[in-house]
Write a structure and sequence with these properties.
The protein has about 260 residues and is an alpha/beta fold. It is built from 8 helices and 7 strands, in the order E-H-E-H-E-H-E-H-E-H-H-E-H-H-E. Bound molecules: NADPH dihydro-nicotinamide-adenine-dinucleotide phosphate.
């Protein structure tokens, strides 16, 4: 492999925003390792990517982000295949919803709280911990955490655990800025608004029709709207963007 070949890892790369990001980075010339939790999603993603890229370019695995052993095993596979990644996109996330949306605060269970935080926050921290030492040594790195409008603005539909997990990524980002200071490693948050994916549901759902009314640009977001911003932050052109939260929400939340 070329010494300058970029290597990225995308968590939750098997569907939605993550899969769009994997594709975008592959087109930009990155080698990409990604994982999802469900075998069916990972298989579908692998089949789709194989139509355009040969197996030397990507590594697709089934990994449960809540298992530190599985996460460590995945990064070790990436390192064996190429080297430790210079780019990490912490995208995997869950947003539990009952038939009437997320449980109201008064009925939030400890189980839901722990589950959401372990994927959305602890999972991101574990992946950052896996890559930071190598990034610091090579004096280059791009860490992109996927937050949410729900962690920035008064939540409309998201539950407490999800809101807290996304808001807490700002603290993780600040900590990483300190840990990586002076090394050329950048850490940023991309905060999507309503993006049409499995998590957000179909555009016709009541929640999405209501969201559309609030979005000045006049449409819901597509996974590629977010992937292209992630791609830019991963690029060498974005070296002076550090510690930023970039909203990709069509203007639904515009802290001007
Ligand atoms: P999807 O549900 O389409 O994708 C979520 C991804 O995370 C899947 O690849 C899923 O894997 C993976 N994942 C979930 N749990 C685990 C786990 N325990 N271990 C490993 N992988 C896991 O959602 P989106 O693409 O919509 O969301 C991507 C990110 O964007 C999330 O962090 C979400 O919070 C954020 N976001 C999304 C918004 C939206 O409107 N869509 C709005 C704001 C933020 P698998 O499917 O294989 O189980």
């Amino acid at each position: 492999m070329d010494a300058w070949q970029r290597v990225a890892v995308v968590t939750g790369g098997s569907s939605g925003i993550g899969l769009a990001t994997v594709t975008h980075l592959l087109h930009a010339g990155f080698r990409v390792g990604f994982f999802g939790q469900s075998a069916s999603h990972v298989d579908q993603a692998r089949t789709m990517i194989r139509r355009q890229f040969d197996d030397g370019w990507f590594l697709a695995r089934c990994v449960d982000l809540t298992s530190p052993q599985q996460v460590a095993g995945f990064f070790s596979d990436v390192q064996d295949r190429w080297r430790m990644p210079d780019t990490l996109v912490c995208n995997a996330g869950i947003s539990p919803k009952g038939p009437e949306g997320a449980a109201p605060f008064a009925r939030l269970s400890l189980d839901e709280w722990n589950k959401v935080l372990s994927v959305n926050l602890t999972g991101a921290m574990l992946c950052c911990q896996a890559v930071v030492p190598a990034m610091v040594i090579q004096r280059f790195g791009r860490i992109i955490l996927i937050g949410s409008i729900a962690g920035r603005a008064l939540p409309k539909v998201a539950g407490t655990a999800y809101v807290v997990s996304k808001a807490a990524l700002s603290g993780l980002c600040r900590s990483l800025l300190a840990a990586c200071a002076g090394t050329g490693v950048t850490v940023n948050i991309v905060a999507p608004g309503r993006i049409v994916t499995e998590m957000a549901g179909t555009p016709e759902s009541a929640v999405n029709r209501a969201a559309l009314e609030r979005i000045p640009v006049g449409r819901l977001g597509e996974p590629m709207d977010v992937a292209s911003m992630i791609g830019f932050l991963a690029s060498s052109d974005a070296g002076f963007i550090n510690g930023a939260i970039i909203d990709v929400n069509g203007g639904e939340f515009a802290p001007l």
